[in-house]
Amino acid sequence: MLSFFDVFRDINMLNVLFRFGLAFLLGGAIGMERSFKNRSAGFRTHILVTSAACVASMTGIYLYLNLKMPTDVSRIGAQIVSGLGFIGAGTIIVTKKPKVKGLSTAAGLWASGIVGVAVGAGFYEGAIVATIVVLLAQTLFSYAEQYIRTTPEFDITLRYQDRGALDEAMRYCKDHRLAILNLKVTGDMNDYKAKLTLLPKLRIDEARLFDHIRKIPGITEINKVNI
Questions:
Q1: Inter-CA distances, 3 with 12, 20, 115, 130, 195, Å
Q2: What are the b/e assignments for 192-225, b being 16+ CB within 10 Å?
Q3: Whole-angstrom Cα distance, residue 116 to residue 219?
Q4: What is the residue range of 11's domain?
Q5: Same domain assignment for residues 127 and 186
Q6: pTM exceeding the 0.85 threshold for the entire prediction
Q7: Over residues 26-39, mean pLDDT
Q8: Which of these ranges, 17-21, 57-61, 72-76, has the smallest mean pLDDT?
């Protein structure tokens, strides 16, 4: 541990102010990045979460050390960790595409609460390192993520006259690492229509995929569904 922080580890008025100030700065740093990206939970929200977690953590220590109450000082911190899940859930939304958004913000709020608990407990080194890691994950690593992200799922529609044509198209998709998440077939004799939801496990060439399926005997039409 850094000896510089030893003087701030006891519970007194000066250290309370120091812990609130540090919680304010660390929570604000995480929240500032979210505000720059125009996320639902930004600068003020992260400061409130970190500061509240900080005072809750200090309260548990105060009850045990100063009031000599027979309590588990870690119990309040554990409840903070659980309760932050409800706050984070409010930032997660499902768009029309469909696509889930807000997971990083929810995780950042949860991490901010943990940082606040660490500051309130006097574990300043851990809180500072955790803040740096969170900021790296939300800034630098967000750019690296685009290079490892695969193509998202998409829908296609097929018109065909022979049921065997659909089987061959599905077999081709599976052989080329395309998981079939959903299948809906409508139509009557000699005029069928199928809607498939495909999830590529690797990057694919959509033009090549469509060209091959279009050449399958019995397939009369193939289209990608634009949402």
A1: 18, 20, 20, 19, 65
A2: bebebebbbeeebeeeebeebbeebebbeebeee
A3: 60
A4: 3-145
A5: no
A6: no
A7: 83
A8: 72-76
